[in-house]
Amino acid sequence: MQINQNKLKQRLILLSFVASVLLTGLKFFAYYITSSNAILSDALESIINVIASGFAFYSIYLSAQPKDRNHPYGHGKVEFFSAGFEGALIVIAALFIVIEAIKRLAEPAPIQNLAEGSIFIAFTILVNTAIGYKLLSEGKKVNSLALVADGRHLMSDSVSSLVLVLSVGLIILTGYTWIDSAASLLFGIFLTYNGSQLVSKSVAGLMDASDENLLDTVVKTLKANKKPDWIDVHNLRVQQYGSDMHIDCHVTMPYYWELQKVHETIHNFEDILKGSFVGETEIFVHADPCLYQCCYFCRIPDCPVRQHEFVQDIEWDAANLTKNEKLYHEAKINIQE
């Protein structure tokens, strides 16, 4: 299953790379026949598509490599680096586009053959939208930041190209050539925002920042499958590296259980989590023995060592489960000692 996912990711990113090369050539041809600064901006940004797709292909290939002695957690983090690299290239290209647009506003130049050039750009919009949507949808399915980043880049390229075509239409209707440079300037600002968003997400991933959506998914899975034997779950940590998921936590179980029963319970706990995610899921569980305070929210029937009657459940949410302490500290119960 994992091998098939990696092959799919490599095929998709290779498709993106080949399409980016062809469409970049088409955009430069459109600039050649029009001398439009906005079209040149779009073509220059497409060079970033080519470089980024090539690097993303390498990162996906590398992230698919098995764990080794030097990389015990695998190579999935390279996808964060790939997204950051792509974002940085987008910002650099955007700054160049903004500078050129300002220069052209100050010193206008003649524009020609806009209708013909727009036809070529319209074709690139259709191709980029189709490929970008495919990369986005598949990237989300397999949790690949490299695919998602490249897909968003292509989709944003389509949006900016659409704005470009509309600006060309306005120039044809009004005759105001300054619209060309103004559109290029807005395009550059739009790209700067998109690039900075990619860089920000890349840095967050490399710094192991919490993914709140991913954490919520894990918490919902635990709540939906909660067993009486799982007296308490705490110190929960979740990280996504490429397609690989890493989860570790502490699970409180009866202190009098034999090791074999503890092992079986942890194995069942892991299987439930693994069955809820696509890709390889690595889970480390630390078994904690229960304390007498746990009796107040423990639902194990006929417990031979119970010291207190069950009173109430404690809410399993992200705030509680991520704390490095047993949940009885959060219980709204007056414990009589």
TrEMBL record:
Residue runs in coiled coils: none
UniProt cross-references to InterPro entries, sorted A to Z: Cation_efflux, Cation_efflux_CTD, Cation_efflux_CTD_sf, Cation_efflux_TM, Cation_efflux_TMD_sf, CDF_Transporter
Residues covered by the Cation efflux protein transmembrane domain: 13-207
Transmembrane segments: 12-34, 46-64, 76-99, 119-137, 158-179
Family matches, as SUPFAM superfamilies: Cation efflux protein cytoplasmic domain-like, Cation efflux protein transmembrane domain-like
Keywords carried by this UniProt record: Membrane, Transmembrane, Transmembrane helix, Transport
Cation efflux protein cytoplasmic domain residues: 215-290
Subcellular location as annotated: Membrane
Membrane topology qualifier: Multi-pass membrane protein
Family membership: Belongs to the cation diffusion facilitator (CDF) transporter (TC 2.A.4) family.
Protein name as annotated: Cation transporter
